[in-house]
Write a structure and sequence with these properties.
The protein is mostly helical. The protein folds into 2 domains: 203 residues, no CATH class; 170 residues, no CATH class. The chain is 87% helix and 0% strand. The chain is built from 17 helices and no strands.
Length: 399
């Protein structure tokens, strides 16, 4: 397990450094264009991945029976939806790139989920580390060493290399899979299977709706910025989210291991909960120190291109801290398949965001969406913890 976390940590460090290279060397306009495509793709594949992950792990038997072509069906629906949105808020080239990147990243995410269910975490982490290290190396050569590539825009180079490496990582994971898995995946696109997948996902509307809202809420400020068509705000939020992603990925690394174990063994939930809250104060202290360090380092990285970046980063990071507090509660609800309660929680939080955004915008249009997201995260965390305690009490009574 220690080796796994070391490899996973190195992988995320490479990705974080790649983000810093882009923040440092891309202009505000270039980074805004990059952020629109990259962030839209990340949001969409995480929504799709969230749906598949929760059903594949917690409803594995029915998923394997009905959801054979799940990734294609979901990519078709959500990929086209986000591409149309990007087309109206950017241009056709950005929409096409978003669709391509969404498809590639989703296929890669599906492979990660299957390895997670099998608890073969090291294979995925190793391939991911190799991919991120290569991307960092290519970006460094392009921007830091200043290798000229005529007719290729800087933002397109970053997105194109990321897409190519997603193809490479997918291929490598397929090679490391058994021939039976490869054979099974090669017959996915039959029409009858497509229809059965659609019916299956519609029948699990609670999971789908929770995953959509849960996947979109972290990107709420960025969505508002794209609606406003504010290039400076898009680039600032995009850069702040790249810094925040460092913390969010650390939380996701914990979930990658914990979710599978919770869903497989309900008897360890109480022990895991007790252990988690014992180390939570130390984890929060480390998080605060890390936030303070990055807050100090930001001007040295971007050269002051984004005046409001540090404030945006701190506010977004507070959302990561709130999310960390409710991590075990969310995992408990996942273990009990309490998706209806979870959906209601994120729905209430989202409504709070929408309602208070105009109020905070009166104070600051730049910070309004960020502050409203903090309010939404607080509401969601409290509701998740309350629902988890209620479910645990019911389980104890039944037991």
């Amino acid at each position: 397990m220690l080796v796994l976390f070391v490899v996973d940590g190195i992988s995320k460090a490479f990705l974080a450094l790649a983000s810093l290279v882009l923040i440092k060397y891309l202009s505000i306009s270039e980074f805004a264009q990059f952020s629109v495509v990259f962030t839209a793709s990340m949001m969409t594949y995480q929504i799709i991945g969230g749906i598949v992950e929760r059903l594949y792990i917690s409803d594995h038997q029915n998923y394997e029976k009905e959801g054979v072509v799940s990734s294609f069906f979901l990519i078709l629906v959500f990929g086209l939806a986000i591409s149309v949105y990007i087309y109206f808020h950017a241009d056709i080239s950005a929409a096409i790139l978003t669709l391509i990147l969404t498809y590639l990243c989703t296929k890669y995410q599906i492979q990660r989920i299957k390895k997670q269910k099998e608890e073969r975490f090291f294979i995925y982490s190793f391939v991911d580390m190799l991919r991120n290290a290569t991307w960092l190396g290519l970006l460094y050569l392009k921007f830091a060493v200043a290798i000229e590539l005529p007719y290729i825009a800087n933002g397109f180079f970053a997105l194109g290399t990321y897409a190519l490496l997603a193809i490479f990582a997918n291929s490598l994971l397929y090679m490391l899979s058994s021939p039976e898995v490869m054979k099974k995946r090669s017959v996915k696109l039959y029409w009858s299977q497509f229809i059965s997948s659609a019916r299956y996902f519609f029948s699990r509307g609670d999971v789908v709706l929770y995953s959509i809202l849960g996947g979109a809420i972290p990107y709420y400020p960025f969505i508002i910025a794209t609606v406003m068509r504010n290039e400076s705000l898009i680039s600032t939020y995009g850069a702040a989210m790249r810094y925040q992603a460092i913390f969010s990925m650390a939380i996701m690394a914990v979930n990658t291991v914990v979710i599978a174990r919770f869903c497989n063994r309900k008897d360890i939930i109480r022990a895991q909960t007790s252990a988690f809250y014992k180390i939570l104060p130390l984890a929060m202290l480390c998080l605060i120190i890390a936030i303070a360090f990055i807050w100090w380092a930001i001007p040295y990285i971007d050269g002051g291109k984004y005046p409001g970046l540090r404030t945006a980063f701190v506010i977004l990071s507070s959302c990561s801290a709130i999310s960390l507090v409710s991590t075990v509660a969310v995992n408990q609800l996942l273990a009990f398949n309490s998706y209806r309660a979870m959906f209601k929680g994120v729905l209430v939080g989202f409504i709070v965001m929408v309602v208070v955004t105009p109020i905070f915008n009166l104070m600051s249009s730049d910070l309004g969406p960020l502050l409203s997201m903090v309010m939404g995260y607080l509401v969601i965390a409290l509701l998740m913890i309350w629902n988890a305690n209620k479910e645990r009490a019911v389980e104890s009574t039944v037991g």
